[in-house]
Amino acid sequence: MNKKDKRKIIMLYILAILLLAYNAFYSLPFYSADLMYFQNLDDKRISSRYLAGNSGKGVMIVGDISRDMSELTGIVHELKKCGYSVFIFDLPSQGNSFGTVPYRYKTSNYIAEQFFSALVVYTQTSKLTMDNIHIIGYGEGARAVLQTAAFGYISPASVTLTGCSLNLSEKTDFDIINFTVDTQIEWISLLNSEMLSCPIHIICSTLDDISSPQDNLLLAQRLGEGAKLTSLKLRTHSLLMSDAETSVLTVENIAGMDNIEYIPSKELYFRPIALILSACVILYILYYIMKILRYADKYSYERMEEIPSMPKGHLLKKAALWFIAVFVTVLIPCLLYYLPISLPYRSILMIMGYSSHGIVLCAAYIFGGFGGGRDKFLQKPKLTPDKKGIAAFVALCFIYVILFSLSGTFSIFALLPKWGWITIISLLYSLLFYADKADRRLTAFTAKENIISFCIDFAAFGITPILLFSLGLVNAGFFSLRCAVVLVFTALMGSVLDLLKCRLSVSAALRGLLYSLLTYSGITLFS
């Protein structure tokens, strides 16, 4: 590495450190809040944070399911500026909270009970009365606030419902084996203009796949004249948790009721840009390191004495298999959106984000004999799939799809602790990375064929966001795009490991673990 390269890499490191330091500094108000633990009704430990204020007013935030409280840093920062005391907590299985959310949580009082337990803790800690506390709910948290209010348990200063997960247009919530129609649930019929005497602010997105403007309009009509509806354009439910405009609207509305002056922070709008820049700089650093290593050792890849030639039609067969996987695991769930049913976005995103290729392709490639994969992995001359290979392929497809399709409902994750599931999923991803790398190592691919093979193997992660956006499924598109960015980072890290002559099995295992941890770093799905 010459001096010019050293200076460039040092400057990139400094830029990355500065961007990450800025993000950390912006999060200080959240992490400076007191970390508290309390017991819920099931005697499970629940984690929460309490930020004392000086205005004599308080705000309680009820987050969405599958998203921990750290994602609400932005609005906590804005509320602190206004002098509010803030209380936020993690639902069971989120953050440091114990327990799991039961499968049929939509038809039970479970999440509402978690919210009410946390509210009692907040009032005791802050010494504030209910009429001095504003409540903000997101997604399933907003639904829990309404459910508690319907039974007359709360009378806060105001209620803000953001992306409320409530279907009042008589659609069916479909999560694989659990069918519910919200309008047939008992407490939904109690929603009326008399159950809450405080101001109600409803915020929704015109591009929201779940909490549609139509559903929110019906909700506003039920809640009467006290409910104000704000429909944001070009915003998505998945971004509402940290979206600057949503936070500003919420805090402006609350501060206005208390006659508190509020000036939005410029950092609120810059932070998403800083996060994107941080990711870009880190990706470029990895690429630059890989470029330097590749220049230093152009013969870094191991070569066998006799390299088998590429099977005829190898790439075409892989492309055909990928198309089948995408059709089964992406297009069919997408079509369900256009039926009179509503799918929980966590479940559908897990299917579309990973199953479109993932273990489906790996299982077919190794066990099914497609594209000569079994010949290289199992050292058998036959290239035709046998009954055992087909059975293994079907079994892995079934397990993989069911595992992730049920992820949003927490129905099976109580079987193992979080680290157990991460280990299993890391191993599954390691198989995928091993298959792709071995395919390109053990076959006489040209450089062009190497690129084509990799693109076919992982094309779903790049094409799926475009497909989802074109179908109007914006939530799923953004989530899938995030998966693609994580995959690029993992691929670059894998290239660095290869250039450092890391063993293929070790490299695949490290990439599988890295990809698994990065994928679930912002979304807690496990018990």
Question: What topology emerges from the helices and strands here?
Answer:
Elements: H1 3-26, H2 28-31, E1 34-39, E2 45-51, E3 58-62, H3 73-81, E4 85-89, H4 110-126, E5 133-138, H5 140-150, E6 158-162, E7 172-175, E8 178-181, E9 200-205, H6 213-223, E10 227-232, H7 237-240, H8 244-257, H9 267-296, H10 314-336, E11 341-342, H11 345-355, H12 358-367, H13 373-378, H14 387-405, H15 418-441, H16 447-470, H17 474-499, H18 504-519
Parallel strand pairs: 3-4, 3-5, 5-6, 6-9, 7-11, 9-10
Antiparallel strand pairs: 1-2, 2-4, 7-8
Helix pairs in contact: 1-9, 3-8, 4-5, 9-17, 10-11, 10-12, 10-16, 11-14, 11-17, 12-14, 12-15, 15-18, 16-17, 17-18
Descriptive labels:
single chain; 527 residues; alpha/beta; Rossmann fold; 2 domains; eight-stranded mixed sheet; three-stranded mixed sheet
State mean pLDDT (0 to 100 scale).
68
Could you say which structural class the secondary elements and strand pairing correspond to?
alpha/beta
Number of strands: 11
Strand percentage lies at 5-15%
How are the strands ordered across the major sheet? 1-2-4-3-5-6-9-10
Catalogue the unreliable spans. 174-178, 233-242, 296-307, 340-357, 380-385, 399-415, 522-527
Radius of gyration: 25 Å
CATH architecture of the largest domain: 3-Layer(aba) Sandwich
Brief overview, please?
This protein is 54% helix and 11% strand. The protein has 527 residues and is of the alpha/beta class.
